[in-house]
Here is the input.
Amino acid sequence: MTEWTDPDTFAQALERADTKEKGNCFEDFEEGDVIEHDPGLTLTRFGNEQWMSQTLNHDPAYWRTDAAADRGFEEPPIHPDYLTAATLGITVEDLSEKGGYFLGRTDVRFPGTPVYAGTELHVESEVVNCATSSSRPEYGIVSWRTRGKDAETGEVLCSYERTNMIPRREPVATDGSGAAAAEESEDNGPDLPEEFVAPEGGYFEDFVEALEQADDENAAVAYRHERGRTQDDVTVASLPLATLNTAKQHHNVDVMSDSPSGDIVTYGDVTRSTALGHARSDEETWREVGFDDESFHTFVAVGDTVYAFTRVLEADDTASSDEAGTVRFEHIAFNQDDEPVYSGTRTAEIRKRPS
Ligand SMILES: C/C(=C\C(=O)O)C(=O)SCCNC(=O)CCNC(=O)[C@H](O)C(C)(C)COP(=O)(O)OP(=O)(O)OC[C@H]1O[C@@H](n2cnc3c(N)ncnc32)[C@H](O)[C@@H]1OP(=O)(O)O
Here is the structure.
């Protein structure tokens, strides 16, 4: 009898064998379903530092004890970006491993922060919406409300609503109306204010002054950040796997060569954290409050460079501490060809200038 490892024999064996599948298709989700995710991880200093270093988030409060104490933390905490990425990573095996891209997320909040190293994460998701994609019959669009909890106390540490394109087992007939509507809306020309104002510094008062100046001049407070981060094997494959994100989009070049992106792509949370890192490097962040209306517009792959652009939307003198005010930003990540790859609004407390 021939050895099964004989290449011709093995090719036939592969053809005849069933594949033990991973993940779920669109048809497997029903609104109201609650899924307790089996994977979990311990939020460690190492994991946090790996994520934050590679995405250029070098805020000393997350690295040094004295800087943490100065910001009112007991010790360097787990950063909300890493907490968000780890919460999502854990869900991928059940929600999106089958394929289909991360389209967007909103209402990202951190009711239980600050979170410290050593906390074990337990995550659950509820299916909140299952929709037909009118432009892509082989996919549906699914949204889930996900909660990342402290496994010991049950306290919710991170919560958000996320939307993915999810492959269907059976394509459906669609009228293509979504694609037609998208084409129609492209007719509007650019509508930008004449002047762009950049804040002088990164304190709360600098944002307030820039907003006042822009208001006088019918301008916008909008500026770009100098840093860029070219995507490599670490950012594309290692960081998502370090959050237990099993999406083939990030680590299986073989399968992804026959997909809309044609290649492995950067985990949306890496793209977004990188852009936010660039933005934070030009401000005096006090606390992260939340994120809304996040969208991933196009793929980021190995060799692409992630830059960031910021618009300051509003500022409010109140915050959780007298030492800070609250600012709402829109951040846009863009690539080396100036194409937007991510956008979202962010509410953050920004330190007031020390008197
Ligand atoms: C896998 C993973 C994590 C995980 O495992 O989870 C990741 O990290 S992966 C990396 C991050 N990700 C990306 O790299 C995707 C970037 N992106 C694109 O490359 C393009 O978006 C596209 C090729 C995917 C689609 O391209 P496209 O077909 O031209 O795009 P669109 O027509 O804009 O979107 C199609 C339909 O999704 C609807 N839609 C869009 N956005 C939202 C939203 N936010 N909420 C609700 N519905 C939305 C849209 O309304 C349309 O609906 P209809 O089909 O009904 O018209």
Summary: The mean pLDDT is 94. The two ends are 85 Å apart (CA to CA).
